[in-house]
Amino acid sequence: MSILKITASDWEVLKIKLSRKYNHLTDDDLLYTPGEEDALVARLAKRLRRDKEYITFTLAKELSNLESNRL
């Protein structure tokens, strides 16, 4: 069970930020359905070669400040 809760509107902003930060991610890598945060974290962890804790931390950090253009 993921501690992240990502809404569809938040995901649209977060997806843009992630694609700018990790420009090698594909649309399939960034595919997200609300409620399936664990699948997203697992997919990104595999694609970015990071552990799930790092991905969760990164997503939570970006979610906390969606208005910023900072990556």
Automatic annotation (TrEMBL):
Domain of life: Bacteria
Annotated InterPro entries: YjbJ_sf
Descriptive protein name: General stress protein CsbD
Species this chain originates from: Sphingobacterium phlebotomi
